[in-house]
Design a protein that fits this description.
With 310 residues, this protein is α+β, with helices and mostly antiparallel strands. The protein contains 14 helices and five strands. The protein starts with 8 loop residues before the first strand and ends with a helix.
């Protein structure tokens, strides 16, 4: 039996798609060559529309392919990908096998997080296809607004010629070349060194604590960058986004003063091994007005006072 289980068939094949309730979809008839068309039952509560309001998820894959997915009325997810390996990767990117039932059970009545946890049952942050892409996103996002960071990220991806870059594709650039896309020299150096010296994709095989310890030894990689790589590259829910600007604003709104980056770790500490996911829920909840006592106007006021005092 193949890793995908017993359900996918070749897209357009005469056998069609067998509709079953088993969790693992199957390899195509005839030896595992794509494309794959599978129906997958997510583990635990899952609502794809919470991350893709239009209902259709599309994501680039290494090598130039693309995976697509949408959720059926019975809760299962229809997934299409070029090959079985790509389908497995898409399952990881969608977090289909990561049951969050315990998270919702434990924190549904939490004073701060509870309203969001109850409102967003089935929300799971999507992941990137490669750890190298997550590293790129982490380095681009250091100390700048998210809009500017994403613009730099997109420019580099165009320069690489791939929307799902590997460490080799990023590592072949000299730091000066990346600077032409808007990346600061020190960050460009950090990214190139990281891609050339660390087998980033194999980090998915290691425990979070070891990964964070290894990455934090790299000059230019701090707790926030480790959080981005852990969440979006490794699919881990236990590493918080310490120092995330959105969480700083949220915490400042709650405390009535502009907080320091390290204080976001204290904000998320009560959620223990779910700290990374809790941070994502808080950000999603704040955007929807679901966090009790949080106000964007207060955050802006606190930030303005901090700037005037500097």
């Amino acid at each position: 039996m193949t890793p995908l289980g017993r359900q996918a068939t070749r897209a357009g094949g005469s056998a069609g798609l067998r509709d079953t309730a088993v969790r693992h979809a199957s390899a195509p008839v005839g030896g595992g060559r794509g494309p794959i068309d599978a129906v997958v039952s997510p583990a635990g509560p899952y609502r794809l529309r919470l991350v893709r309001p239009g209902g259709l998820w599309r994501a680039p894959l290494p090598g130039g392919g693309e995976a697509t997915a949408w959720q059926l009325s019975d809760g299962r997810v229809r997934l299409r990908a070029p090959t079985e390996a790509d389908a497995q990767l898409a399952r990881f990117m969608l977090a289909l096998d990561d049951d969050t039932t315990e998270f919702h059970r434990r924190f549904a009545r939490d004073r701060l997080l509870g309203p969001t946890v109850r409102a967003l049952v089935g929300y799971r942050p999507p992941r990137l296809a490669t750890v190298a892409h997550a590293a790129l996103r982490a380095v681009c996002g250091q100390l700048i607004e998210s809009g500017r960071a994403r613009a730099i990220e997109r420019a580099i991806l165009r320069g690489v010629g791939s929307r799902a870059p590997t460490r080799r594709e990023l590592g072949r650039f000299a730091p000066a070349e990346l600077c032409r896309y808007g990346l600061a020299p020190q960050r460009a150096t950090t990214l190139v060194r990281l891609c050339r010296t660390v087998d980033l994709e194999r980090l998915r095989e290691q425990p979070t604590e070891r990964v964070v310890g290894r990455l934090c030894r790299e000059r230019g990689i701090g707790p926030w960058s480790c959080g981005v790589i852990a969440l979006e590259g490794l699919g881990r829910y236990d590493q918080p986004l310490v120092g995330d600007l959105g969480l700083i604003k949220l915490a400042s709104s709650l405390t009535g003063r502009w907080v320091e980056p390290w204080e976001t770790d204290e904000l998320l500490a009560p959620y223990a091994e779910w700290r990374g996911l809790a941070g994502c829920f808080l950000l999603a909840g704040w955007a929807r007005g679901l966090v009790p006592g949080a106000c964007a106007d207060t955050a802006r006021l606190m930030r303005g006072r901090r700037r005037r005092a500097a």
